[in-house]
Amino acid sequence: MSEPGNGWAAALTEAAHPSWSRRAGAGRALAPHADVPEAARALAALLLDAEDTAVTRRTAHALTRAGGVAAARLLSVAVTEADDNQADWIRTGVQDALEDRPTGVPALRAACRQLTRSPEEAVRRGAGAILAWTEPTGR
Question: What is the C-alpha separation between 75 and 14, in angstroms, rounded?
């Protein structure tokens, strides 16, 4: 489990800020701590931000760059809970992050393959969708 740093508590507060840019910044700050329950709850809410899709996109981007199974799980669940517009922005954030850092594709795919064996249907379905997005012919 990751250990929260100095700005971690502030980022939790920022996740509920009225300003979209502050919420997006919170997503970036919290993404490396996706395995911490408090951060995971805030990140899940940011992925499904009802006010601004930029928050959704930037949080998905940050989680993809952070990597790991916990981040992939949050993305997977969000994909299944999102409306079509939010799901499109999650996909855009994931794909943008992978274009920035193509070496992250194998790690994300490995995490999603692991998640396709989850006992939770939403996790399995979302992980399958992300695997489809990251197919070499789908990018």
Answer: 20
Residue 35 DSSP SS3: coil
Q: Does residue 139 register a pLDDT over 80?
A: no
What pTM, to 2 d.p., does this model score? 0.92
* Vertex 130: Cα angle to 134 and 91 (nearest 5): 85
| Contact indicator for 47, 12 with CB cutoff of 8 Å | no
**Which comes out higher in pLDDT, residue 90 or 137?**
90
56, 125, 44, 51: which is closest to 88 by C-alpha? 56
Spatial distance between the Cα atoms of 52 and 41, rounded to a whole number of angstroms: 18
